[in-house]
Design goal:
By secondary structure, the protein is of the alpha+beta class. It is about 30% helix and about 30% strand. Strand 13 and strand 14 form a beta hairpin. One of its GO terms (biological process) is ornithine biosynthetic process.
Length: about 400
């Protein structure tokens, strides 16, 4: 537990009071792996969401953006293996049909059902399989088996991603938990990634929206694997108010605790996504320091983090810092090259724009590590930011050449 009373706990999203989740295989994926998940709150919850900024949006994104405006939700039904994107009117009708069928079988209002899809673009949903799957999901939940949801939303991921925290509030406590998927097509402002978060805190929709926006800005929007932006991204949060403490107020001292806990969960899920990047062998923390503005720092960090030449250099464990300064120069941000310093895990390799006097053996040992901090100091201001990325390996090409 940290000094503010926040501690990490096990259980992921299922650790939250009144939240039940389940996942099964309904046959969308031909390999028999789980592909349909249900997240259910025992009561109507306050809801908020953030979505892809891609101009091409999946049917589930378009429909959720309308439904989330009410600030209420109770169920999330998510499928993997089919993105239901670029499927025209049929795609939107299929999304609505899935939501309506889910609502009917759970005996709740249809507008409280949110949907999500991830997978191959351009193929219509097999609604019949999903409907049969929904019946199985409900039967499984009724049996008390709350397993499989974190696996059922995966595509090229190699492991399920979940995180949860407990926050002490006076004499009571609240919990925040989440699950996520993502391994490729992950770029600024989210990409093929889904994150579903729940909390038993009682909170107004405007405050929940504010807290989620800040959490996403500091986590999912600060990661990149391959610079490709997806059509289906979303982060959804449900707050059912079932915890044994009062409602969070904007100016209360407890609200910052809620924000901190939510950010912690989001950052942990975001880090897992980068660690699980398609073919990734290393996690790279790209820190840009002493920039003129936060925006400049992020732009520079993203330019470096998205550079295939930088990423392949880390995979090959070669110290080609010229690729870093080249990416920095192509960022569009004004800076003074003669002021730039670059560090690997605190070891200076570039000083004032030129090669520094460094120990090659020490740098080589750093490059062999699984997690490396690359710091680029611009020496222009006081603003810092850090972006998480991965290296780029042969395996990434293989995975995406065969994914269909």
């Amino acid at each position: 537990m940290n000094s503010s009373g926040i501690k990490k706990i096990s259980g992921g999203i299922n650790a939250v009071k009144g939240i039940k989740t389940v996942g099964i295989s309904c046959g969308i994926k031909t390999n028999g792996k789980k592909d349909l998940a249900l997240i259910l709150s025992e009561t109507i919850a306050t809801a908020a969401g953030t979505f892809t900024t891609n101009r091409l949006k999946a049917a589930c994104v378009t429909e959720n953006q309308k439904r989330i405006k009410r600030g209420l939700g109770q169920v999330i039904i998510a499928n993997s293996g089919n993105a239901n994107t670029s499927t025209g009117k049929r795609g939107l009708e299929d999304t609505k049909e899935v939501a309506a069928f889910t609502a009917e079988n759970l005996n709740i209002p249809e507008e409280l059902v949110l949907t999500a899809s991830t997978g191959i673009i351009g193929k219509p949903l097999d609604v019949g399989k999903i409907k049969n799957g929904i019946k199985k999901l409900i039967s499984k939940i009724n049996s008390g088996d709350f397993s499989g949801a974190s696996d059922a939303i995966l595509t090229t991921d190699t492991f399920a991603k979940e995180s949860a925290v407990e926050i002490k509030i006076g004499e009571g406590k609240i919990r925040i938990g989440g699950i996520a998927k993502g391994a490729g097509m992950v770029a600024p402002n989210m990409a093929t990634m889904l994150a579903f978060i729940a909390t038993d805190a009682k909170i107004r929709k405007d405050l929940l929206k504010k807290a989620l926006h800040e959490a996403v800005t500091d986590s999912f929007n600060m990661i990149t694997i391959d610079g490709c932006m997806s059509t289906n991204d979303m982060v959804l949060i449900l707050a059912n108010g079932m915890a044994d403490c009062g409602e969070f107020k904007a100016k209360s001292r407890e609200f910052p605790l809620f924000q901190e806990g939510l950010k912690l969960v989001a950052k942990e899920l975001a880090k897992m996504i980068v660690v699980d990047g398609e073919g990734a062998t290393k996690l790279i923390r790209v820190k840009v320091s002493k920039a003129r503005s936060k925006k400049a720092a992020k732009t520079c960090a993203m330019a470096i983090a998205n550079s295939n030449l930088v990423k392949t250099a880390f995979f090959g464990e070669i110290m080609n810092w010229g690729r870093i300064v080249a990416a920095l120069g192509a960022s569009g941000i004004e800076f003074s090259p003669e002021k730039v310093c670059i560090f690997y895990d605190g070891e200076k390799i570039v000083e004032n724009g030129c090669a520094a006097n460094f120990n090659k053996n020490k740098i080589q040992k750093i490059l062999k590590k699984k997690e490396i901090i690359l710091e680029v100091c611009l020496n222009q201001g006081k603003n810092n930011t850090t972006v998480l990325t991965s290296d780029l390996s042969y395996e990434y090409v293989k995975i995406n050449a065969l994914y269909s």
